[in-house]
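Obj: model holo form, ligand = flavin-adenine dinucleotide.
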Amino acid sequence: MSQPMVSRGFRGRQRSVEANLPPGQYLTNDFPVLSAGPTPRTQLAKWDFTIVGTTLVQPKRWTWDEFQALPRVTIQADIHCVTRWSKLGTRWEGVALDTLLARVQHQARFVIAYCDGGYSTNLPLNEVLGGKAWVVDSYEGAPLAPEHGGPARLLVPHRYFWKSTKWVRGLELSVDDRPGFWESLGYHNDGDPWREQRYQGD
Amino acid sequence: MANRLVSPIVWQRATVIETVRETPQARSLMLALPHWQRHRAGQHVEVRLTVEDGYQAQRSYSIASPPEAPYLMLTVERIAEGEVSPYLVDVVQEGDQLEVRGPIGGYFTWQASQSGPLLLVAGGSGIVPLMAMARHHALAGSTTPAHLLYSARQVDNIIYHAELEQLATEDQAFAVFYTLTRGAPPGWAGFQRRIDLDMLEDVGWPPAQHPLIYICGPTPLVEAVATMALHLGHAQGRIKTERFGPTGGS
Ligand SMILES: Cc1cc2nc3c(=O)[nH]c(=O)nc-3n(C[C@H](O)[C@H](O)[C@H](O)COP(=O)(O)OP(=O)(O)OC[C@H]3O[C@@H](n4cnc5c(N)ncnc54)[C@H](O)[C@@H]3O)c2cc1C
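Output (holo structure tokens):
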């Protein structure tokens, strides 16, 4: 690893101290859209959310209406995208993964969230339980727009935002860790913004 | 799923060996790197700049050179008030060093071995990774029919204009179509409006031919064109997008 090298003639922008931003992030007030393919548009009548896995005693499935009937919470969180923007104090509404996972019996240690559009992301179970992750369907008081992952997306604010997969449709509970879409394309397996885990090897 | 990048991506010191003014806003930098793993057309690198006090800024830049090239070429368009792009476009000189790591990204890539006709759609500096694909297409002698639709503001904002014309003449399987969104010179033969359904249908391939579609540029353009492609009946899995920035447009 080379020493940082001063770039001749580069002054950088006037910097204010942003104590609440992870390293290398800048604040934005927009909500940029980033995804690898086009935005899927799933009709609510066809939407469902499932939990599957080899160690599962009984797989679980909720229709949109059943999902709406689950206990809901509002979440206020700072989000950090690996492309360097951060947005503070975003407000979401949805169902905690604690609530969903309490309804199945399993022996897994990892979860793979899968989505419309072929995306997936992997997380250890202990990173999503205990009020750390949600399936959200509302942003700033309005239904979540398709370009931001609607009808529902995962929200894991303490990880880079690619782990908050858009258009989430279910969870696979697994005994072993399997890299998801971005994780198998060179992005970091854990993606902790405070440790600046952007790419493999960081 | 695409190939895995297994090795950690480390920072290297690249030396600027040549700079080329492409348009009033854009400049290409040819870089020599100590270690370079052959990239795939469409991938990008991260560039890191450091101020004396230790402050650093990092940005992503697509690779413009084809995998066949012996050096790495980046093309940067100046964004007004930007932190990094004005430095790369106006300040960096031959002989300067830049910290670079990559190649990164395994999704928005094209290799001459892939099947299906190709439709490339660029907005503004979104041409950069698509140029790597067009150059690779020509150098690999690919016979896969490829069309490029390039949206720019005005004619002098068209990056690589002369080279694109030359590729269109020399590469039998490659054709280029331009559209200008902020006025055209007298006698302009290309389109003169934002990309719309009719234009995409005219220039593209019927869904029955299962074209591979790559769309790159400012986020609003990418969103709009990807939605049109779906509307025309192209399969989601054949449409690949790369979004360069939160705002902007051409
Ligand atoms: C995968 C990837 C590949 C990229 N490849 C290229 C490339 O080949 N050539 C190239 O010129 N750029 C490319 N970009 C964009 C580049 O990374 C920077 O975002 C851009 O150069 C602006 O950086 P800046 O520091 O000058 O502006 P910043 O200081 O970051 O931003 C200044 C202002 O400009 C806005 N802005 C930021 N980026 C853009 C944009 N792209 N378009 C319009 N407005 C913007 C910001 O919202 C902000 O208001 C790529 C981006 C990605 C994610």
